Amino acid sequence: MISDSLLALWKMLDAINTNLPRVAFHLKNGVIRKGQLNFIDRNIKRIGKKYLNLPQRASVEPLNLSYQNKGLNLLPINVMADISQIVQGLRVL
Question: Which of 38, 65, 72, 82 is the most buried (most CB within 10 A)?
């Protein structure tokens, strides 16, 4: 896992943000169980809170905020999956 690597925390989050659009392509074209996405989301949140020096019980809003608002710009993968499938469905129509 990326959290076990020797990268700096900000580099880990940058790697996650870089690869999320690639994941969105696969979310459009397939059916993925929400349980698997929840597992990935929990790990991303844990790493993001660690980077921001927040306790694990803290809210996730700082992770979801845009870069302009001093956030990490990490959209939850469940939300990304729903948006991707709706967009794909609209394109089919």
Answer: 72
